[in-house]
Amino acid sequence: MDVLAKRGMQVDRICPRCGEGVETVAHMALLCNESQILWRLSPVCEIGGDRMGVWFQEMSWNARNQWVFDRRKTAPRLLNVRTLNYLTEHENALLREEGPTENSAPSARTWQAPQVGQVKMNTDAVMRSTEGRVGLGVIMRDNVGDILVGASKSINSTTQVQEAEAVAVLYGLKIAYDAGYRLLEVEMDCINVVHMLQGRLSEKSSTQRIVNDILAFSNRCCNKVAHAMANSSLLSDEELVWLEDCPPDILPLVLMDKNQIE
């Protein structure tokens, strides 16, 4: 609307969804309260030009038009699931068109499955500094990408990001221990904590022995499921644990990782 107003057209420049601020493209896609809820629920780590970010911007635009022209609103959680489903269908279609290539190696920017008989655990922490809260997310999968355990928990804390990431690992290890898993491959996206847990900082504890089994640094793009679990924990005050299952809005991300297993 802001662009039309600058061209001399008589239009209301105020955002029709939140009623606050001029409706620029940036406001519609990113700054509007309605759009911000969608972004918080999404697994997008950084808003940029990547494919997933573009799909969520498009969904924000569609939600805006649905309200303006039809006076209908769709719950942000449902929009999140729809967007991930559309993206999964799109990427699967591209894979079918391209087909397998000879001597193609697995991408370092996709989730990699653990060896047979082992469990891979991804952990992440999401900060809400203004609220003094930290969301912890944990997901454990087997060698075919099926979920074994998923857990999320929000805590009141003003800790730094690096400390929160370490707390997420320790939280995940406790869940794994209680579930009976001893041989773990642990992935996270905070390289400093990885270095500390690999032996640069050591302590005599059962937790440290579990960490020492296998600990690998993961690119953030490989950690979207745990990131989404951490995000979802901020919407609840309760600790939630899933066995061989996960929240419905997380499932599309799990399926995306499974489709990329070589």
Can you give me a brief rundown of this structure?
The protein is an alpha/beta fold. The chain has helices at residues 2-6, 25-31, 33-41, 51-70, 76-98, 161-179, 191-200, 206-211, 224-233, 251-259; strands at residues 119-128, 133-141, 147-156, 184-188, 214-217, 240-243. Strand 1 (119-128) and strand 2 form a beta hairpin.
What does this structure look like?
There is one protein chain. This protein has helices spanning about 1-5, 25-30, 35-40, 50-70, 75-100, 160-180, 190-200, 205-210, 225-235, 250-260; strands spanning about 120-130, 135-140, 145-155, 185-190, 215, 240-245. The longest helix is centred in the first third of the chain and has 23 residues, at about 75-100. The chain folds into two domains: about 1-95, no CATH class; about 120-260, Nucleotidyltransferase, domain 5. Helix content is about 45%, strand content about 15%. With about 260 residues, it is α/β, with parallel strands linked by helices. The model is unreliable at about 100-105 (pLDDT under 50).
Main beta-sheet annotation: 6 strands, mixed
Strand content: 15-25%
Radius of gyration: 20 Å
Instruction: Indicate the overall shape.
Output: globular
Average of per-residue pLDDT values? 77
By secondary-structure content and strand pairing, the structural class works out as: alpha/beta
CATH fold-level topology of the largest domain: Nucleotidyltransferase, domain 5
The CATH architecture of the largest domain comes to: 2-Layer Sandwich
Strand order of the largest sheet: 5-4-1-2-3-6
Number of strands: 6
**The CATH homology group name of the largest domain:** Ribonuclease H-like superfamily/Ribonuclease H
The parts where pLDDT drops under 50 for at least 5 residues are: 100-107
